[in-house]
């Protein structure tokens, strides 16, 4: 399609190639509702036919859908051709206490769409964009949720905002992408340079350029911008009008979305359309800045397929001598390093962010440089949890004529937690607290905190050949069992499982406050007689919060053992904060159990966890041992 052809996709050919963004009419510093409605109607009277809003254009969560309600109220009292107005709204950001927080969970998106339908006063939303990618939710989940809502007839067209080429291509697996909205201005040209505008042109969809003047906080910078000052002087307009004229001059598919809180601002933006932006202006502009995509970015706009002519990969073949890039992916602690060693031993170059520093994005040019220099076998072993994180690696390899193999280590996160704990014990001889893990993060990056591992699991998107992989191989997890570990053990929660307090407190602050629960000694004696060792495993976050001292906790444990009058092989407890869990020793994380199994040579099939809380049950699951509820365990036998 020719780039001179009007290219606004489902928007049609806009007579006024601008849209009004309602962010500033809806958020902090907004005018009164009546004034905001007047500004919207004035823009419509001047020919504006595109209004951009969002469910989160509001002051806070209690004010959600304010911007959409402005649209409904402005249109309901406007005498112009309402059928010509196109309303674009967005979902995927929440506003807790006025903050902007991504929320792409399925249930949140569905709730917000229902709210948007009501606020806009329509039976079907004309166009809805995913406002932002939520790093805590797999993008696949968010995209699938929007596709479902579209199939139900609640949304006519879908698109993405604050996005990337990789995410747009991923979205195409779920629905036809009908619009892309990203920042674009003479001060921020990334969407042009990175190829996103070119992708919109290729797809035949509008590129909605928000912050066309750099954002409200940065508009003053245009007064000294070297790229627009000569253009503004030549045509006798303000630098702001010259900057907007420069975007309009890019032509389709770019549709700038200007913000305004006053009629004068609308008039100023419309004056930009009258600037006779000519060849001399383009030369002046391009001598200082460029919106053109780099050759690499332009290549990345191609659909995610395996290019013709690449060597076909055979699934299951090990490290070989033929060119290939191997992405070794899996959660931290999955065992990638052991797999990578096989490839390095065969002469593959290794790229790992933890070893060479920098970000995942910075590994991509390093990969390109290796391939260009003749190193045709490379293995990358970062986590690569999302399709978007893998996108650039695959494209770079293809650009150099090299196929890509994915080796996915399907290690369950509970087993990965245990692997990290084993590393900690091997290297430091003890479990580490949150601050110790934090201090070691730079020097020992193979010890991720549990929160980082949980984040990976929450964002994980399974690899698939439609990403451009020549082969996807799943490596099942197999835990090595030491045949010498044959011991039997009872892991016993303490508070609520073995004892209660005389005072009624949740946990004792004094050993004299300890009272054994009924039938504890009698039942445990039977297991001791059968060769089981007894272990206490307890969360004691009161130490971290200062509500109880470490000495008092240990004295209460000693009193509990004295009352039991049974041999307790070891007492282990977590003294760290309850939330957020920054250590591996807080149940339900498996640190306490892994440590006991290692030190006492216990066989997992011979270990039973007894507790009274969900965290105890989940601890047993995480550790891979049997769980029995304390009430059932200590019932009369």
From TrEMBL:
Domain NADP-dependent oxidoreductase, first and last residues per copy: 17-281
Matching Gene3D superfamilies: HAD superfamily/HAD-like, NADP-dependent oxidoreductase domain, P-loop containing nucleotide triphosphate hydrolases
CDD domains: AKR_AKR13B1
InterPro entries: AKR, Aldo-Keto_reductase, HAD-like_sf, HAD-SF_hydro_IIIA, HAD_sf, NAD(P)_OxRdtase_dom_sf, NADP_OxRdtase_dom, P-loop_NTPase
Pfam families (UniProt xref): AAA_33, Aldo_ket_red, PNK3P
UniProt-recorded name of the protein: Aldo/keto reductase
Keyword Cell cycle: no
């Amino acid at each position: 399609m020719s780039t001179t052809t009007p290219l606004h996709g489902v928007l049609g050919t806009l007579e006024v190639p601008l849209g009004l963004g309602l962010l500033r009419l809806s958020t902090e510093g907004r005018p009164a509702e009546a004034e905001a409605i007047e500004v919207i109607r004035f823009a419509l009277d001047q020919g504006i036919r595109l209004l951009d809003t969002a469910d989160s254009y509001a002051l806070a969560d209690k004010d959600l859908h304010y911007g959409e309600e402005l649209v409904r109220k402005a249109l309901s009292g406007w005498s112009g051709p309402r059928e010509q107005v196109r309303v674009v709204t967005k979902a995927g950001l929440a506003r807790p206490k006025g903050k902007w927080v991504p929320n792409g969970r399925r249930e949140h998106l569905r709730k917000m769409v229902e709210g948007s339908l009501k606020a806009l006063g329509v039976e079907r939303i004309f166009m809805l964009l995913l406002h932002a990618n939520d790093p805590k939710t797999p993008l696949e989940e968010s995209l699938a949720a929007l596709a479902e809502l579209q199939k139900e007839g609640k949304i006519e067209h879908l698109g993405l905002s604050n996005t990337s080429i990789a995410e747009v291509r991923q979205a195409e697996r779920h629905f036809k992408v009908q619009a892309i909205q990203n920042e674009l201005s003479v001060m921020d040209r990334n969407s042009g340079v990175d190829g996103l505008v070119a992708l919109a042109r290729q797809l035949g969809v509008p590129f909605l350029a928000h912050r066309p003047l750099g954002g409200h906080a940065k508009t003053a910078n245009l007064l000294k911008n070297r790229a627009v000052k000569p253009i503004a002087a030549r045509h006798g307009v303000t630098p702001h009008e010259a900057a907007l004229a420069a975007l309009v001059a890019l032509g389709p598919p770019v549709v700038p979305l200007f913000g305004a809180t006053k009629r004068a601002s609308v008039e100023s933006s419309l004056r930009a359309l009258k600037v006779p932006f000519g060849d001399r202006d383009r030369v002046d502009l391009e001598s200082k800045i460029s919106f053109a995509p780099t050759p690499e970015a332009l290549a990345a706009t191609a659909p995610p397929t395996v290019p013709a002519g690449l060597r076909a990969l055979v699934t299951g073949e090990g490290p070989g001598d033929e060119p290939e890039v191997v992405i070794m992916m899996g959660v931290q602690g999955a065992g990638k390093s052991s797999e990578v060693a096989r490839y390095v031993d065969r002469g593959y170059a290794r790229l790992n962010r933890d070893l060479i520093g920098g970000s995942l994005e910075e590994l991509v040019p390093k990969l390109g440089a290796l391939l260009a220099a003749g190193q045709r076998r490379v293995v990358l072993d970062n986590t690569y949890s999302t399709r978007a994180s893998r996108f650039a690696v695959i494209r770079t390899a293809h650009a150099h004529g090299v196929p890509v193999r994915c080796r996915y280590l399907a290690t369950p996160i509970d087993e990965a937690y245990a692997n990290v704990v084993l590393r900690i014990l091997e290297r430091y001889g003890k479990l580490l607290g949150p601050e110790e893990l934090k201090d070691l993060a730079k020097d020992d990056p193979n010890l991720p905190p549990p929160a980082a591992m949980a984040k990976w699991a929450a964002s994980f998107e399974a690899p698939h050949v439609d990403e451009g992989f020549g082969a996807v191989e799943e490596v099942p997890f197999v835990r090595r069992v030491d045949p010498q570990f044959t011991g039997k053990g009872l892991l016993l929660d303490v508070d609520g499982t073995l004892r209660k307090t005389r005072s009624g407190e949740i946990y004792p602050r004094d050993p004299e406050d300890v009272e054994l629960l009924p039938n504890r000694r009698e039942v445990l004696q039977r297991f001791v007689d059968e060769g089981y060792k007894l272990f206490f495993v307890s969360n004691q976050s009161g130490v971290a919060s200062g509500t109880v001292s470490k000495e008092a906790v240990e004295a209460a444990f000693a009193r509990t053992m004295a009352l039991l009058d049974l041999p307790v092989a070891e007492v282990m407890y977590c003294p760290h904060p309850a939330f957020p869990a920054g250590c591996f020793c807080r149940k339900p994380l498996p640190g306490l159990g892994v440590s006991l199994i290692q030190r006492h040579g216990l066989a997992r099939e011979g270990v039973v966890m007894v507790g009274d809380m969900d965290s105890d049950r989940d601890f047993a699951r995480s550790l891979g041992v049997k769980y029995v509820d304390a009430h059932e365990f200590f019932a009369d036998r």
